[in-house]
Design a protein that fits this description.
The structure holds 3 protein chains of 3 kinds. Chain A has helices at 10-21, 44-49, 63-66, 127-140, 152-163, 184-198, 245-248, 289-305, 368-377, 385-389, 396-401; strands spanning 3-6, 28-32, 70-73, 77-81, 86-89, 94-96, 99-102, 106-108, 121-122, 144-148, 167-171, 201-203, 208-214, 217-223, 228-230, 234-236, 240-242, 254-255, 261-263, 266-268, 273-276, 283-285, 316-319, 327-331, 336-342, 345-352, 355-362. By secondary structure, chain A is an alpha/beta fold. Chain A folds into 3 domains: 3-107 and 240-305, FAD/NAD(P)-binding domain; 110-236, FAD/NAD(P)-binding domain; 326-401, Enolase-like, domain 1. In chain A, helix 5 links the parallel strand 10 and strand 11. The N and C termini of chain A lie far apart (67 Å). In chain B, the strands form 4 sheets. In chain B, strands 6-5-4-7-8-9 form a 6-stranded parallel β-sheet, with helices on both faces. In chain B, helix 10 packs across helix 23 (565-576) and helix 19 packs across helix 25 (617-635). The chains are: A alpha/beta, B alpha/beta, C alpha+beta. Chains A and C meet through helix 8, helix 9 and helix 11 of A and strand 2, helix 3 and helix 4 of C.
Chain lengths: 410, 637, 198
């Protein structure tokens, strides 16, 4: 039985590793439009910040060899021929499969496609992007940059450039950075401190409206509030689009069953997969590594053993990036908010029926795992959530075990 | 601000200030206690020995690890040595205070110092008479010189005889009882073990010697020396401090004062004096009341200069000068947080080093004055007794100069204060009784009052501030027990209104009637922590009047929120004088079955006094009532 | 596999384990070199919970949530000891592990092992190098009162462990009466301190 993976990302690498661990000994082909061994998208921004390139290859640069995989690199998959069980690439190759693992990931979405043709404008998604940005910074002696889009990837990009010693202006449409992974108060709290701690120039309620280009080379940008900024580098992080079209005909994700099958013989996982949420049951693109890994493992076990079940995805996010100021965001921010805030720490949980519906933890990771556990296990916490959030030493779990009462300070 | 409850203090003013501390994330002692958790159990059990560099050694209380230190010391030896050292330090602190007063009296007597005077000649004569010094043909200063010499001799005497003050003040029967105990100890150990103090300094040095590497390892003899050294404090150093301060500054008389942070005045230059000695603070009060300084204060826009006390310096000046007291130990940071304190002037003992950092967040001048107390971040203005007026004036001026820097936005003074009738020196109590203990003895004998309990000082951040002080006091006066005491307990009781005449209503009918007839509150403020000696003297007077041992009297002592090594010394000299003493929190002795046994049981037979530990105020009051009833039965009353 | 268990009633809160761990992890292996060294790494923490105190650290869970969450390949299982170990060379301190660790066992700072002058995650490595020399973890050897016990952990406990810390807490009975009194007095002290009664 021959297995082909579309993509060499985290889902595909974990899938292949799991297949081999489960004893799968047949042929495996992995296809990617990039020239690299599997790398970790979570890690690649650190390459920009100055870490060596080797460290992005989270499963080793010799992954293909070690796992006895035939890589088909720098080939972009454009068509899945179900009749003939063939994968066709833009570069003209076709690869037959018995089982297909479709994990083509996602790509940067740019509000104006032609911007990306301008020298100095980059997406921030792939190692190819990073290598190009790195080379460009070196060649142009970039001192300042504009990041358009202040979501997770935008802030990630801004901080990577900050660590590189570049002055960064970050332009964001919303009233706070990280608006998808925060509520208004938490997001504003985080934005204020991110700006101070990393010296970011944050422009909220703003978008990049136009580029100033000279002979194909970016010279500056104009914001919606009329401001013009001189810059030779613009990173566009306004969103991502799942690469699902070759499989489904549209770039809006791939629906999968609880076995991760999109149809017989074809598994889909990672950033393209539309899965159900573990807690809310709402289907969506839950593009995080832990989800991709679980999906890959379930798919591999299902492929080898004929049965396996995916429980669902979580939407967990954490942003730390060496600024000693972690921002954790999990679940949905609906229900009754319970907040604790002191100095640089902000912690809020949203309760529904006495259980955690979502939470934001900013400033440290103390107790984060305990709260995560309470969230996932759906334990009623309405009686002690205030104590748990106010716990700076990490004792609430143990206090609970010892059945101690909440200390009272009115 | 409405009063709400708080697990850190029962004092409404403290609760209000803690709210401000919480809101502004101001570092404070309660926070620091939390950050220190968990605290090392070896230390709490007393089984950590750092005496030599072969250590440190620890004996684990479960018998899982080694049962001896490197040198072979057992848990019993370690605990006893550590306890003895605590008592040596505590006695030294009190006694060194006494030494300074004696030296000042000597300087005044010889005319070297003219900034101070003999204020109370009657007391001088009384002390001289007690010591057997004839006043015949002597001027006041000549008599003062002899009394000062006698006092100073107590510190440095090198003979085997008991120090003069102890020999003169201690009831003869107690001296005999201690003599018997010495014989009993010799029978048990074969060693010559004294209990009467030979020299105040010597007994402390004896402990430092005996606890040196490779000396005394016997918990019994170590405890005996602990008691001896402590008796040198109670009937020596502390007593000298009290008596000679009365000569120099006046014996306290009954007066009404105000207590709690509300004594600070938002419109005045506020100076808080904090620590233990009245020598400097008396001068600060004097200068602050002068027309010159008040004029200087008006010049910077204040209505005048207001002095308030904290801790035992506060007690000294409230007893003698009627100065309001801002609070006890745990109020010291809170007072600065009011934002209305221009200067915090400190002498010795119980000064948190944290006050320097905290003061720097405000305009408060944190001024250290003793060469023995230097705190990084503080302003040091060295106090010299011979130049007292000038230095006190400089200090007051410094406070006045700081007034314009006060940030009105940071000022919050909780208005809660209580009135307290204070000033109950032994002389005043006897005066209230008509010059003799007889009426008190009579009401005790007829059961109108069942007994007397003396409670002593400290706050301890491990105990909700003032909770134990207040509740124990309330529970005792409900049980026909007159409560007397000193130190931070006294301030707690004053703040809670328990020293107000209205508090008579809280007392049981018998006690209430006695208090009403004498016009006193049921809870008597006897002074600062060195003034625990006043309680000894009072107990001695009653015992002598009845011709019985102190240990036979229906009396007990308590240190319910104790913190310091001085409290170890106080507790030990109470026990050595025959009194049962309650402690909370537990002292660091539980790692040693032998020491625990000696202090809670063995000492009963040997000395008449003993320690007990109890964490609940009502249960403590019950236990004390039981002890008092047992003693009453013993006396046949 | 063998794991570290905590007999919490025997913990005297001396923090000897913390010091032993710091010395073991420090490149100098010397107490005096730790003083004032901000890069010192301590992988065990004696936690005071009211009157009780006990050391907390990584439980080397099976499966380990931190290991599964790590997107940089920095966390792995040591094949010999089954310890969950973290390779600081490739750790990016992204905090994915800390976000899910139910025992708060992962911390971040610039340790002596951090490359590139940045923070990394650090956690207990079960002294797996000592184990291979036939030694116990440093904290276990340092514990005077036998509150830390290194012993075989069965499969069942491993499964329950992720759900409930109690699995790691032994509670052997039998202690000297004065120690019981001490514990009881501490319990009362803390109960009173916390109480709202006035």
């Amino acid at each position: 039985m021959k297995v082909v993976t579309v993509g060499t990302g985290m889902a595909s690498a974990d899938f292949v590793q799991q297949l081999r661990q489960e004893g799968f000994a047949d042929e495996i082909v992995m296809i990617s439009d990039e020239p690299y061994a599997p790398y970790s998208p979570c890690v690649i921004p650190f390459y920009l910040a100055g870490d060596p390139l080797e460290s992005v290859f989270w499963k080793g640069q010799d992954f293909y060899q070690r796992q006895q995989v035939t890589p088909l690199l720098e080939h972009r998959v454009v068509e899945i021929d179900r009749e003939q069980r063939l994968v066709r690439t833009e570069q003209g190759a076709s690869e037959s499969y018995d089982r297909l693992f479709y994990a083509a990931g996602s790509r940067s979405w740019c509000p104006q496609a032609d911007w990306m043709q301008t020298a100095g404008v980059f997406g921030f998604k792939t190692l190819t992007d990073m290598v190009a940005i790195d080379r460009y910074i070196g060649q142009q002696g970039i001192q300042r940059a504009v990041v358009f889009g202040g979501g997770f990837i935008g802030v990630d990009a801004a901080l990577a450039l900050h660590h590189r010693g570049i002055e960064v202006t970050i332009v964001h449409r919303n009233n706070r950075l990280l608006s998808q992974m925060t509520d208004v108060e938490g997001g504003q709290f985080a934005t204020e401190r991110l700006a101070t701690k990393a010296g970011l120039d944050v422009r909220l309620h703003n978008t990049v409206e136009a580029l100033s280009v000279d002979a194909g080379q970016l010279r500056g940008v104009t914001l919606s509030d009329g401001t013009t900024l001189d810059t030779a580098m613009l990173i566009v992080t306004t969103g991502v689009t799942p690469n699902s079209a070759p499989l489904t005909g549209a770039d809006d994700g791939v629906s999968v069953s609880s076995e991760l099958l999109s149809e017989a013989g074809i598994y889909a996982a990672g950033d393209v997969a539309l899965t159900r949420h573990l807690v809310s049951d709402v289907p969506g693109l839950y593009a995080t590594y832990p989800n991709a890994q679980q999906q890959a493992r379930v798919a591999a076990r299902h492929l080898v053993h004929g049965s396996a079940h995916y429980d669902g995805s979580l939407n967990t996010n954490v942003l730390q990036k060496h600024i000693d100021f972690p921002i954790i965001s999990v679940g949905v921010f609906e229900g009754e908010p319970v907040t604790w805030c002191q100095g640089d720490l902000f912690r809020r949980a949203y309760l529904q029926d006495g259980r955690i519906n979502g939470y934001i933890l900013i400033g440290d990771t103390r107790n984060a795992g305990h709260i995560h556990h309470l969230y996932v296990t759906r334990e009623p916490v309405d009686h002690n959530i205030a104590e748990i959030l106010a716990d700076r030493r990490g004792v609430s779990h143990y206090r609970n075990l010892m059945q101690l009462q909440t200390p009272v300070t009115v | 601000m409405p009063v709400k409850s708080d697990h850190r203090s029962v004092d409404p003013a403290a609760i209000a200030m803690l709210k401000i501390a919480d809101q502004n994330d101001i570092d404070n002692i309660w926070e620091r206690l939390e950050k220190q958790q968990p605290q090392c159990g070896y230390g709490q059990l007393g089984t950590c020995c750092r005496i030599c560099t072969q250590g440190p050694c620890r004996i684990d209380p479960l018998g899982e690890g080694p049962t001896r230190g490197v040198c072979g010391a057992t848990a019993d030896t370690m605990v006893a040595r550590n306890l003895a050292r605590m008592a040596a330090v505590g006695s030294s602190a009190h006694s060194d205070h006494g030494r300074k007063v004696a030296l000042l009296l000597k300087a005044v007597a010889t005319g070297e110092n003219t900034d101070y005077q003999i204020v109370n000649e009657e007391k001088l004569q009384g002390v001289a008479a007690k010591l057997g010094i004839s006043a015949d043909g002597l001027t006041t200063l000549e008599l003062a010189d002899k009394v000062a010499d006698a006092a100073l001799d107590c510190f440095g005497s090198q003979t085997e005889a008991a120090i003069q003050f102890a020999a003169a003040y201690m009831p003869k029967r107690l001296q005999e009882q201690l003599g018997k105990a010495e014989v009993a100890l010799k029978d048990i150990t074969g060693a010559r073990i004294g209990l009467m103090p030979r020299g105040i300094d010597r007994e402390a040095v004896d402990i430092l010697h005996r606890t040196h590497f490779g000396c005394d390892a016997d918990p019994l003899t170590l405890v005996a020396q602990t008691v001896r050294c402590s008796l040198g404090d109670g009937w020596g150093g502390s007593l000298i401090a009290t008596e000679l301060q009365d000569i120099l500054f006046g014996t306290p008389t009954v007066r009404t004062i105000k207590a709690n942070l509300g004594v600070l005045d938002a419109e005045m230059v506020n100076i808080i004096v904090h620590g233990h000695e009245p020598i400097l603070s008396e001068k600060v009060v004097e200068l602050a009341r002068s027309a010159k300084m008040n004029k200087a204060a008006e010049a910077v826009g204040a209505k005048g200069v207001n002095v308030a006390g904290l801790c035992c310096t506060g007690n000294e000046i409230l007893m003698r000068q009627g100065v309001g007291v801002a609070g006890n130990l745990l109020h010291s940071e809170l007072a600065i947080m009011t934002g209305a304190v221009e200067a915090l002037v400190v002498d010795v003992q119980c000064i948190f080093p944290s006050l320097a950092d905290l003061s720097s967040c405000y305009h408060t001048q944190f001024i250290t004055t003793s060469e023995q107390v230097n705190i990084p971040g503080a302003i040091h203005m060295q106090f010299e007794e011979h130049d007292a007026d000038k230095i006190a004036e400089q200090i007051v001026q410094r406070a006045i100069d700081a007034f314009p820097n006060r940030n009105a936005a940071k000022v919050y003074i909780p208005q809660e204060t209580a009135e307290a009738v204070v000033g109950f020196s032994v002389e005043q109590i006897l005066a209230a009784l008509g010059g003799t203990p007889a009426p008190l003895v009579e009401v005790i004998a007829n059961g109108t009052i069942k007994g007397v309990v003396g409670i002593v000082g400290c706050n301890n951040v491990k105990v909700k501030q003032d909770l134990f002080h207040q509740e124990l006091t309330r529970e005792l006066i409900k049980r026909d027990i007159l409560v007397i005491g000193t130190g931070c307990w006294a301030i707690a009781a004053a703040k809670a209104g328990l020293m107000n005449l209205d508090a008579q209503e809280l007392a049981s009918p018998g006690l209430k009637a006695v208090c009403k007839s004498l016009g006193i509150p049921p809870v008597l403020h006897m002074g600062s922590c060195v003034d625990c000696s006043r309680m000894l003297v009072l107990a001695g007077a009653i015992a002598d009047h009845l011709g019985v041992d102190i240990s036979a009297l229906p009396l007990a002592g308590s240190a319910p929120e104790w913190t310091t090594e001085k409290a170890v010394a106080i507790g030990s000299y109470f026990v050595g004088s025959g009194l049962p003493v309650h402690l909370w929190p537990a002292p660091p002795i539980l790692g040693s079955p032998a020491v625990t046994g000696i202090l809670t049981e063995g000492s009963k037979d040997l000395l008449g006094g003993y320690f007990f530990v109890e964490e609940d105020p009502t249960a403590t009051a019950e236990r004390m009532l039981a002890i008092i009833n047992e003693k009453r039965a013993g006396l046949g009353i | 596999m063998k794991k570290i268990f905590v007999d919490y009633k025997k913990c005297v809160a001396c923090k000897g384990c913390e010091i032993a761990c710091a010395i073991q992890q420090h490149p100098s292996h010397n107490l005096y070199a730790l003083v004032g060294d901000k890069k010192t790494q301590v992988n065990v923490r004696v936690l005071g919970v009211e009157h009780e105190a006990f050391p907390v650290s990584c439980r080397h869970c099976e499966p380990a949530m931190c290991l599964d969450a790590c997107p940089s390949g920095a966390i792995s299982r040591d094949p010999q000891t089954s310890a969950v170990v973290l390779n600081p060379d490739i750790c990016k301190a992204c905090a994915m592990c800390a976000m899910v660790c139910p025992f708060d066992a992962v911390s971040f700072k610039q340790t002596h092992r951090a490359q590139y002058g940045r923070t990394v995650a650090y956690k207990c490595d079960l002294c797996h190098e000592r184990l291979q020399e036939g030694l116990n973890p440093a904290c276990v050897d340092a514990c005077h009162s036998n509150a830390l016990v290194f012993k075989e952990s069965d499969e069942l406990s491993n499964q329950r462990a992720v759900q409930n810390l109690k699995v790691y807490l032994l509670g052997d009975e039998g202690e000297p009466p004065l120690f019981s009194l001490y514990r009881e007095l501490r319990r009362k002290e803390f109960a009173r301190r916390r109480s709202d009664k006035s």
